[in-house]
TrEMBL record:
SUPFAM superfamilies: P-loop containing nucleoside triphosphate hydrolases. This is RNA helicase. Residues 249-277 form the DEAD-box RNA helicase Q domain. It comes from Solanum pennellii. It catalyses: ATP + H2O = ADP + phosphate + H(+). Residues 502-646 form the Helicase C-terminal domain. Pfam families: DDX23 (PF25430), DEAD (PF00270), Helicase_C (PF00271). A motif (Q motif) lies at residues 249-277. Residues 1-24, 40-82, 637-669 are annotated as: Disordered. Residues 40-50, 61-82 have a biased composition (Basic and acidic residues). PANTHER family: ATP-DEPENDENT RNA HELICASE DBP3. Gene3D superfamilies: P-loop containing nucleotide triphosphate hydrolases. Keywords: ATP-binding, Helicase, Hydrolase, mRNA processing, mRNA splicing, Nucleotide-binding, RNA-binding. The gene is LOC107009542. Its EC number is 3.6.4.13.
């Protein structure tokens, strides 16, 4: 290009005349000049190309248009930059800009931050038509279409059975092609794996996605994951733990021995209760279990049956090993409960011919020691007395690998924690399960199995469990700590002086039914019982201040309905199973709500309904909050005096005058 040609196209304001002296150009003028020349060159080149190929193709035409647009945009941007620069050289403009920046923020473009996510995001610049996967895989060729199959057991109209089958068919085809191309043959393992997958896919034909049958109509092998989920929901069973075996749906499906199943039938237990369904299979696999279920829901059989099943696996006691102690130990907080568990074990061990000994306070320790040394498979004990026996060497636990802590929280609450730990430490530790929860247990090996059961599980028990249980499974039926829905709860706000009169009114309505009246202190138990006795009621008492013999006579008299009112302290609050108690009356409310749950649980047992009445005074503020929550939770009426009392609105231990937190502040205009 000649100089004259160039000068003709110069931008306005920059004129060059070669005949005149050289002109000084500023930097910006030089830049402008260079840009102009560059644009002119490109334009010419393009015109040249167009002439060469005569007519531009539509694509070329498009891209040329785009390029032109891009060039225009660039020159606009340059012009704007230049204008800004000139403007900012002016001090007044500079000041204006600074003020603008101060109040309205900088106009400078923000640097774009590329997040790590954005870096990884891939963008494909190929088109659908370029996708080659459809040549190889039929699945892509015929993408699955949703068809109107609603109401026929398919999810969202998708026939998963067909989908699964097609997927495995294609997988086999592709795999075979790969083998063919590579000139190799499938190994037996690979072929078997493919075949197995096909078989699994075929199974979809018979069940799984179909919801036409309820789980109760299905055989065990037909149960799908979904059925098991519904089953657990139906019985309110929830688990916490790993590698959990399936619950049992009925006795026939359990792995209990025939003798035990016969004993279950003999006891009249037609169907297992939810806690039994969930925890018996766990016990049979020697898993450690923490079982939390409502009062009267059959927890005793839930630990007794796996315990007896375990004993049947061991050699019968002989002269050689009977001095080594029992095979299993059950600990319970009270003597009455220990004796009740003994009865339950004897009931289920009917066809096994095993010996059970109970070791509780109030009886001769020497005699108890003698009975153990004579040989027994199971010992039921209160922790204090058992530790005493162990320390005096009346008995040893050299071959005991099965331990049950019934009402574990109560034992800790009563201060028996050290004794429980002492007994656990006296057991052989060589058979503890591996700490690693992924390690599979050897079915033929004997491990130490620990069971903990209660209707309530406060944190102190969880601490004990952490130290002595290995990878336990926590089985909860319903809501932990909640009273069973079979009990109708009433709470009355009364004055202390009104209690006796009101109690008598309730007892008058009993007829031939039975009632337990709970009172917080032994002394008051005796006083109230005396009063009722004088008034002509058939009353007996039970508390820790009575001799063992008196306690047994009282309980037996109440069981046989010789007496229809039992006035008792908390000794009778836990575990005691007396059928058909119609009414539980809390003459005094216990100072902990867990005790309340257990006390009222003496009624409404084994599927029967019951009534619980509680007298509350204005001095019992300690439990107001928890009691109100409990009543609300179980849809029971809350007396208005309790509902509006300040103590029922604030959890004990929380600070009423706490300054409001940031989130609590409400701004008003
Ligand atoms: N599967 C069953 N079928 C029928 N009755 C049962 C079944 N399981 C337990 N029972 C009966 O239910 C009653 C309560 O059982 P159990 O004493 O074991 O309850 P629990 O859960 O231990 O109660 P608590 O928490 O008060 O100790 C007992 O009389 C028992 O015989």
């Amino acid at each position: 290009m000649t100089t004259s040609e160039r000068s003709m196209n110069r931008p306005v304001g920059i004129k060059l005349d070669p005949s005149k002296k050289p002109v000084y150009l500023t930097k910006s003028q030089r830049e402008q000049l260079a840009l102009h020349d560059e644009i002119a060159d490109q334009k010419r080149g393009h015109e040249h190309l167009q002439v060469k190929y005569n007519r531009p193709s539509s694509d070329n035409h498009c891209s040329e248009k785009n390029r032109k647009r891009e060039r225009d945009r660039n020159s606009d941007r340059d012009r704007e930059k230049e204008l800004n620069r000139v403007r900012l050289e002016n001090p007044a403009e500079k000041e204006l800009e600074a003020i603008h920046e101060q109040y309205l923020g900088s106009k400078k473009p923000k640097k774009r931050v590329i997040t790590s996510c954005a870096k990884l995001r891939s963008s494909f610049d190929w088109e659908n038509s370029e996708d080659t996967s459809r040549d190889v895989n039929l699945l892509y060729l015929n993408p699955h279409e949703a068809r109107p199959h609603f109401g026929r057991g398919f999810f969202g109209g998708i026939d998963r059975r067909e989908q699964k089958k097609l997927a495995i068919k294609n997988e086999r085809k592709i795999q075979e092609e790969i083998w063919k191309k590579g000139g190799v043959e499938a190994t037996a393992v690979e072929a078997a794996a493919l075949k197995k997958k096909e078989q699994i896919a075929d199974l979809y034909d018979t069940f799984d996605m179909r919801v036409d049958r309820h789980w109760t109509d299905k055989k065990l092998e037909e149960m799908t994951e979904r059925d098991w989920r519904i089953f657990r929901e139906d019985y309110n069973i929830s688990y916490k733990g790993s590698r959990i075996p399936r619950p049992m749906r009925n006795w026939a499906e359990s792995a209990l021995t025939t003798d035990l199943l016969k004993a279950v039938e003999r006891a009249g237990y037609r169907k297992p209760s939810p806690i039994q369904m969930a925890s018996i299979p766990l016990g049979l696999q020697q898993r450690d279990v923490i079982g939390v279920a409502e009062t009267g829901s059959g927890k005793t059989a839930a630990f007794v049956l796996p315990l007896l099943n375990y004993i049947t696996r061991l050699p019968p006691l002989s002269e050689e090993n009977e001095a080594e102690g029992p095979y299993a130990v059950v600990m319970a907080p009270t003597r009455e409960l220990a004796q009740q568990i003994e009865d339950e074990i004897v009931k289920f061990a009917h066809y096994l011919g095993i010996k059970v000994v109970s070791i509780v306070g109030g009886q001769s320790i020497e005699e108890q020691g003698f009975r153990i040394r004579q040989g027994c498979e199971v010992v039921i004990a209160t922790p204090g007395r058992l530790l005493d026996c162990l320390e005096r060497r009346y008995c040893v636990l050299n071959q005991c690998n099965y331990v049950v802590l019934d009402e574990a929280d109560r034992m800790i609450d009563m201060g028996f924690g050290p004794q429980v730990v002492g007994v656990l430490d006296a057991m052989p530790s060589s058979n503890m399960k591996p700490k690693n929860e992924d390690e599979k247990l050897d079915e033929n090996k004997i491990y130490r199995t620990t069971y903990m059961f209660s209707a309530t599980m406060p944190p102190a028990v969880e601490r004990l469990a952490r130290n002595y249980l290995r990878n336990p499974v926590v089985v909860t039926i319903g809501t932990a700590g909640k009273a069973t829905d079979l009990i109708t709860q009433h709470v009355f706000m009364v004055k202390e002086s009104e209690k006796m009169f009101k109690l008598q009114r309730f007892l008058d309505e009993l007829g031939d039914k039975t009632a337990i009246v709970f009172i917080n202190s032994r002394k008051r138990v005796d006083t109230v019982a005396k009063h009722l006795d004088k008034a002509g009621y058939r009353v007996t008492t039970l508390h820790g201040g009575k001799s063992q013999e008196q306690r047994e006579i009282s309980l037996e008299g109440f069981r046989t309905k010789k007496y229809n009112v039992l006035v008792a302290s908390d000794v009778a609050g836990r575990g005691i199973d007396i059928p058909d108690v119609a009414h539980v009356i809390n003459y005094d409310i216990p100072n902990k709500l867990e005790a309340y749950t257990h006390r009222i649980g003496r009624t409404g047992r084994a599927g029967k309904t019951g009534v619980a009445t509680t007298f509350l005074t204005l001095q019992d503020t300690e439990v107001f909050y928890d009691l109100k929550q409990m009543l609300i939770q179980s849809d029971s009426p809350v007396p208005p005096e309790l509902a509006r009392h300040e103590a029922s609105k604030l959890k004990p231990g929380s600070i009423p005058g706490r300054p409001p937190r940031r989130n609590d502040i409400v701004f008003t205009h």
